[in-house]
Design a protein that fits this description.
By secondary structure, this protein is mainly β. 5% of the residues lie in helices and 47% in strands. It contains 3 helices and 26 strands. The strands form 7 sheets. The protein has a 7-stranded antiparallel beta sheet with strand order 9-10-11-12-26-22-21, with no helix packed on it. It has a 6-stranded antiparallel beta sheet with strand order 15-24-23-20-17-18, with no helix packed on it. It is globular and about 55 Å long. It starts with a strand and ends with a strand. Pfam families: Aldose_epim. InterPro entries: Aldose_1/G6P_1-epimerase (IPR008183), Gal_mutarotase_sf_dom (IPR011013), GH-type_carb-bd (IPR014718).
Length: 293
């Protein structure tokens, strides 16, 4: 049996399966629906939540998996922002998650991986008038999912403004009063817009809006999703914030690395400003481990 395999199959869309036999791990990728990872089974445990109906409906925003957020995380003010004197309208979390990505490569050598590309097109330029290219490689190895990102500015004489992120939905087997292992000392609660001290855990059960960890120095966060399983995210320093959110009566928690705070395209205090011809590289790694009781 091969250690690593990459295969395609037809479902509602063309899906790609990355498998690692030695660790009983499997990842499913759907390029057509925003280049999203829809399923992530590590060491035999499925850690992602997915509302299948939202995946099958091409008009719906997918509730589940790990949506790609670009060029914004969250909204712009009243869905509108200005750039160079021109008004643009952009929906929640930007254009990447509603675009079809193309497959440009895969590998079974030392890992199971697939590389997807999204380039600016007429549809993206209606909301975001810049020439960009995203190259994402999803790599499954040692029972971990690595998302290697390359953000490219194809403009010849203009900077590329953005703040990217991820929106992974983790399936919960227990309640939403969860301890998060992080060195953050405070967070902003978007339910009342108050800054609060972080005391080691956050209870999302009765919260409608998200909270955002503000001052973490270490690019890592870990948390239990059941009495037996703990998930860990590791990410580069460019992801300054982690947004945490859930939806009432749904068995998931979203733990989301973001490069800037909501409304940053309007505020413009922490935008990534990528020079013409420039490239930013980053990595997000998701792993899980068995908890000892």
């Amino acid at each position: 049996m091969k250690s690593f395999t990459v295969s395609a199959f037809e479902d509602s869309y063309t899906m790609y399966e990355l498998s690692e036999a030695a660790t009983s791990s499997r990842v499913l990728v759907c390029p057509e629906r925003g280049g999203i990872v829809t399923s992530c089974t590590l060491h035999g445990t499925e850690i992602f939540y997915l509302d299948r109906a939202t995946l099958d409906n091409p008009a719906a925003n997918i509730r589940g998996g790990n949506p790609v957020l670009f060029p914004i995380c969250g909204p712009v003010q009243d869905s509108v922002y200005m750039w160079n004197g021109q008004e643009y309208r952009m929906g929640q979390h930007g254009v990447a998650r509603i675009s079809s990505w193309e497959v440009v490569g895969n590998s079974e050598e030392g890992e199971a991986s697939i590389t997807l590309r999204l380039r600016a097109n007429e549809a993206t330029k209606q909301a975001y008038p810049f020439d960009f290219e995203l190259l994402f490689t999803y790599a499954l190895v040692n029972g971990e999912l690595h998302t290697r990102q390359r953000y490219r500015n194809l403009e010849s004489n203009e900077v590329l403004p953005f703040y990217a992120g991820f929106h992974p939905y983790f399936a919960l087997g227990s309640g939403k009063d969860i301890p998060y292992e992080t060195d953050a000392t405070k967070y902003i609660d978007f339910n009342d817009n108050e800054e609060k001290p972080y005391n080691g855990r956050i209870d999302l059960e009765d919260l409608v809006e998200s909270v955002c960890l503000l001052d973490a120095k270490r690019g890592e966060i870990a948390f239990p999703v059941s009495p037996d399983v703990r998930v860990r995210l590791r990410y580069d320093d460019v992801f300054k914030y982690v947004v945490i959110w859930s939806q009432k009566d749904r068995p998931f928690v979203c733990v989301e690395p973001w490069m800037a705070m909501p409304l940053e395209m309007n505020r413009r205090e922490e935008l990534v400003m990528l020079e013409p011809g420039g490239e930013l590289q980053a990595v997000l790694t998701i792993s899980c481990e068995k908890q000892t009781r």
